[in-house]
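Forum > Structural Biology > Help requests

Title: Can anyone predict the 3D structure of cyclic-guanylate-specific phosphodiesterase?

Hi all, first post here. I have the sequence for cyclic-guanylate-specific phosphodiesterase but no way to get a structure on my laptop. I'd be grateful if someone could post the structure tokens.
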Amino acid sequence: HADTAMYRAKAQGRNRFQFYNHQLDREQLERVELENALFHALKHEEFELYYQPQVDIKTGLIDGAEALIRWNRPDHGMVSPGSFIPLAEECGLIGDIGDWVLEQACAQMHHWQQNGIHLRVSVNLSALQLEDPDFCEHVADCLQRYGLEPDQLELELTESILMKHVDQTTSLLSQLDAMGVHLSIDDFGTGYSSLSYLKRFPLDKLKIDQSFVREISVDQDDAVICRTIISMAENLNLKVTAEGVEEAQQLALLAEFGCHQYQGYLFSKPLPASELLALYQQQQREAAQVYVI
Ligand code: C2E
Ligand code: MG
Ligand code: MG
Ligand code: MG
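Reply #1:
Sure, ran it for you. Structure tokens for cyclic-guanylate-specific phosphodiesterase below:
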């Protein structure tokens, strides 16, 4: 990075060199600071998993949750993953963070299970995690230690992760699938990939990216895209989750198109584990009451 920036600075002419150099120092400093803070965060348990409910569109009941990492950074408040996951990927910390996320999600499922609650949790993966030759064993070990069935865990991959090392990924995903772990494609429709991978990989679910959902009720093209994804998935025996549902109108259209599941602020934002549990139990109580009456 230093070299490219230096080169850029030089290419702009001598006079600008000092300016860019200075700018570079500051950027580098901030980066190093953030990296150090990330190392520190991992050691001092500053990360927390939030859980966003995934709701069955037909029943309106929570039938899963996506684990989303948060960083409770001292003096900075809650930091969202968009601002540190990319850096963690670049500086190689994502392996350790990814391990922590998986461990934490499994521990949480174990805890819920002990209270009689069976919620499938989906975990986001980074490309680097799939490059670890022991990834599959690691997942199996984690599930076993917490006494979980593999189909309680769902792993979310983006199209770009899938396309990165196709052959390697194919065999890895086949192993995970054979174990019974569920696999989904996150942000579906936004990546540069060919549809042939839908046939190649043993997938369970497509998650329609929120950019298609946002204007589904006003933009005819977005509506067509959502409907097409849903009907294609149906024919390929895949489940579909719509992301980023904020309005009742969006949900009504998705339901009409036959979408199975949704996530979004309309139902709930991502919540601390205890709040998700409370929401789930409240739903169960209400459902039980309806049944009694
Ligand atoms: P994602 O996996 O596509 O997660 C969906 C994002 O949309 C989340 O942002 C969620 O809070 C947000 N969202 C949910 N419902 C709505 C809605 O109705 N409207 C809007 N506008 N947004 C909504 P978040 O939590 O900031 O996460 C951003 C991204 O960071 C995730 O996108 C995922 O790619 C990544 N990420 C999060 N946790 C992890 C993790 O543990 N590991 C890895 N590798 N990546 C993670
Ligand atoms: Mg996701
Ligand atoms: Mg499968
Ligand atoms: Mg997404």
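Confidence is low (pLDDT under 50) at residues 1-11. The radius of gyration is 21 Å.
Shout if anything looks off.
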